[in-house]
Structures are given as structure tokens and as C-alpha cells.
Amino acid sequence: MRIESVRAVPGLSGFFFDDQRAIKQGATQRGFAYDGDPVTEGFERVREAGECLVVELELSDGTVATGDCAAVQYSGAGGRDPLFRAAEYRPVVEGPVADELRGRDPAAFRENAERVEELAPERSGGERLHTAVRYGVSQALLDAAARARRGTRTDVLDDAYDTDPATEPVPVFGQSGDERRTNAEKMMIKGVPVLPHGLFNSVEKVGADGEGLREYLAWLADRADELGPEKYAPRFHVDVYGILGEVFGPPYDRAEVVDYFETLRAAAAPHPLQVEGPMDAGGRSEQIRQMADLRDGLADAGVAVDIVADEWCNTFDDVRAFVDAGAADLVQVKTPDLGGVQRSAEAVLYCDGTDTRAYLGGTCNETVTSARACAHVALATDAAQVLAKPGMGFDEGFMVVTNEMRRTLGRRRRDAREARADD
């Protein structure tokens, strides 16, 4: 079997592109839109409709494998690739990428994906392809390999990286968007293992002294006991988008900061707490140093709050740098920012044997196709948790990711039974 053709069609993603720098600099939300001027290159408004580029690989047996090129909500921020415009990259996918893939064996997933990862066609200015392009094409290659081998995408990744796949669904992390109370209650009723994200992306939401976040965690703990199923024991995970850095400022191992994190822990008790992106230092080296300072300060004081790397932790090299420095308890593997899905798998596996866990994340601004592909990465690598995506409505993303994992595990168990019976 071989890859016969490659097609690309502009499509819609599951949320919006937001200019994070403009929001942090004071753009105010009015209704669903933001008032103010964009400041990040490529943005025409602070909030813009999300886009994707649908990729189709037609195989010689007539089947079609798919993947979706998608980029994160906060594109162009924290060292990420610029805003992704689907129409701009369609000629790249149907040109240089298609030229590279036509005639290749679709079963050779790792080889094919790595070749695309290294492409630097002239139409991309001689630089590597946008991370969104590598992301979507690799999803299609993973789908093609599974079709060629008549197995699951988890099987393909297992074979490619000699992993030890999960035998139960990986804990799913729900994100609430700004409906942080209503959507959190939905999560509790459904027994979501990790919740609620919270979208604390401004000082107004966190509180001038951090009191808003603390009060929210206390409410969350009370409602989890009231609404959750019997023996419900969720893990709380809130993303603060660097805002605690604006509230407190460095150094982050000082008593004022450590004591504040202890109040967060107490508010969330008895549930374990993870705080993502506590500060945004403006660059990777300084971010690692400040994160390590905070982690050391919390450890020295015995404050049991895990910190999660997000800002300036985008590429595989970034993940490796944070892990090697011991700068985080969890690193978010932000799937669209790493490029090909194989790079996300490699990043999760890099955490094995360290004291840093891997959270297979991504963005609300993805698609059902990319979310399903990531569910296989999570299963194959046995990640610590996986994001419910796409969208900010919670229910749909939770359904997509959960069902894909359950469906895959059911198929793998059936295949294993049949293999034993043949023996």
C-alpha cells in the first residue's frame, strides 16, 4: 500500500484565537468579544474565529486518512508559533508536503512523521513548517498507519516507541472556560477525575491579593462533596496564566508567596491541588529559574501544591529543559505547539523515570479529529492526565476524549483475547 495523494481544506476549529498579550495589558471583555487593540503580530482583533486545515491522505486501496492542522487559543504568545491562517498554509500542504509523502508506505508512521517534522520548504521561508501543519499532517499519518496495519492508533504508537500502554482510561482533565462554576458543577456530577482549569487569566479574576482564586477553590471543595458520585476524589487543577506573578512578583520562594500557596492548599483540601503557569517570566531560562524557586520554596515549607509548566514550555526541547531542571511537578505537553503528535509522545515518555509527570494537554481551539488522535497518544504513553477538548463547553470534549479511549481499550482487549485463542 502507498500514499497516493494529499488534500487540504480550510475548516473551523473548536474555539477562538485570543491575543493573550492584549488581554494581559488591559483589553476588557464585553459580551463575548474584547474591547481594545491587538498587540500580537497577525491579530486583527483581540478575539478572532478559530481555524483549522483539514488534511486528507488517500491511500492506494481507496481509504482516506485524516488529520486537522490546529493551533492554540493563545497563538503567538509565550514563544509559540504565530497566528495560524489555514488558507495561507493550504498550498504548503498540497505542495511540498504532498510531494514528500506521495508514494510512501503509510505503515511507516514514525519515519513518515519525522520526515515531515524536518521539512523546510521554500514556501515556508526556508524554515520548518508551522507547528499546526506538522500537527495535522502527523495525525493523518497516524490514522493512515493504523488503517494500513488494521489496528488502532495506540498500537501504531506502541510499536513505534515500544511503550507500555495504559490498560484503563487516562484521567481526563476538564476545562471550564469562564463558566467556571456552572461547568465545574457539570464535571462533578459526571465524576471528572481532574478539574476545572478555571481560566484565571486576569488580576480581576484572581483577585488583587489572590483572594478570588482562594475563594473559588473553597467553593469547589464544598461542591465536589455535594455533587460528586460516591467516593469521588478529584484532583483540582487551575490555570492562572502567569497572573500570580503579577500579584506577587519574584522572588517566589519567599514566605509571602509560600504562605499564600498554603492557603490555596487549605482551601482545596482534602483534594490535591495543581497550579498551572503561576508566573510568566518572559523567557524560558528565567521561567525555569522562577518555577524552580517556587517549587523549592513550597517543598522546603512542606506545602503540598504541585506546579505545572505551561508558559515557555512549548517544544520538545522546552519540555526536556523544564524536566532536567526539576522546575515543575507536571509539564503540560501542549500538543499543537510540539508539532507532530509523535513529538508529544516523545515528550511524555521523556518524563518516565523522573519526578516530573506529563500532562498531555493542548487547547480548546482544536477539533474532534485532533482530540481523538491525542487520546491515542495518552493511552500509548500512559500520561498522567489528558485534556478534554475541543471547545469550552466541557461536555462535548469530555465525551470525545473519554469515548475514544474506552473504544480503543475495548478493541485492544478483544484483539488480545482473540490472539490468545489462536495460540
Kindly summarize this structure in a few lines.
This protein has 16 helices and 13 strands. With 423 residues, it is of the alpha/beta class.
Can you describe what's shown?
The protein is an alpha/beta fold and 423 residues long. The protein has 16 helices and 13 strands. The chain has helices at 20-24, 86-101, 109-118, 131-149, 153-161, 182-190, 203-206, 211-227, 243-248, 255-268, 284-301, 316-325, 335-338, 341-350, 368-381, 395-422; strands spanning 3-18, 28-30, 33-35, 47-59, 64-69, 172-173, 194-197, 235-239, 273-276, 305-309, 330-333, 357-360, 385-387. It has an 8-stranded parallel beta sheet. The mean pLDDT is 95.
Keywords:
single chain, 423 residues, alpha/beta, Enolase-like, domain 1, TIM Barrel, 2 domains, 8-stranded parallel beta sheet, 16 helices, 17% strand, globular
Quaternary assembly? single chain
CATH architectural category of the largest domain: Alpha-Beta Barrel
What is the CA-CA span between the terminal residues?
A: 28 Å
CATH topology of the largest domain, what is it called?
A: TIM Barrel
In CATH's first tier, which class of the largest domain applies?
Answer: Alpha Beta
Q: Supply the helix-strand structural class.
A: alpha/beta
H/E topology pattern = EHEEEEHHHHEHEHHEHHEHEHEHHEHEH
| Number of separate helices | 16
Main pleated-sheet profile: 8 strands, parallel
Strand order in the largest sheet: 6-13-12-11-10-9-8-7
Low-confidence stretches: none
